Amino acid sequence: MTPPAFERVLDTFREILEGPAVRPELDLEDMPAPQRLAPYAAALSGSIYRDDDTEVATGRLIVLYDPAGQDGWTNGFRVVAYIRADLEPDIAADELIGSVAWDWLLEALEPAGYAGVSGTVTRAVSESFGDKRGEPSTTELELRASWSPTGEDVAGHVAAWIEVMCTTAGLPPTGVAALPGGPGGGRG
């Protein structure tokens, strides 16, 4: 039998997946969760698309639950998040982008309440050689983080993950129109 605390996580995921779209650019799906990290686990995957259907960011959010708790967890829950987003080369070149992305996460988590946060931010430049030498270089950011919610309601943590994924993809905040031709903008 699923513990009531974890059943609420499953209910939250169902409500998000079956409810109205969070943003038109965002596609969320249920995905298999790793089964060896905790007795109970649930996961979501997300992708963000431009108007031309180009995928500009992806992510995964995993909620782990162990009623007995685990070392390093402040309660029975641990949230694990991954976000990968394409970056404009000039943004990727900024030495502060890792710190800025980490701050986006902490600011988004603040209303939900968190403890024991840890993670990494990586920026990468991919250059093509040989038969692929004509392909343009790409730059991307990867954020990997985990934290313990300070309560049992994970809705705010899902919202924080979505917010950071949208921000790293260059989308404007909800309710703000994008400029045409920008990362989240229309077709100029």
TrEMBL record:
Entries under InterPro entries matching the protein: DUF3000 (IPR021555)
Top-rank lineage group of the source organism: Bacteria
Protein's name according to its UniProt entry: DUF3000 domain-containing protein
Originating species: Actinomadura sediminis
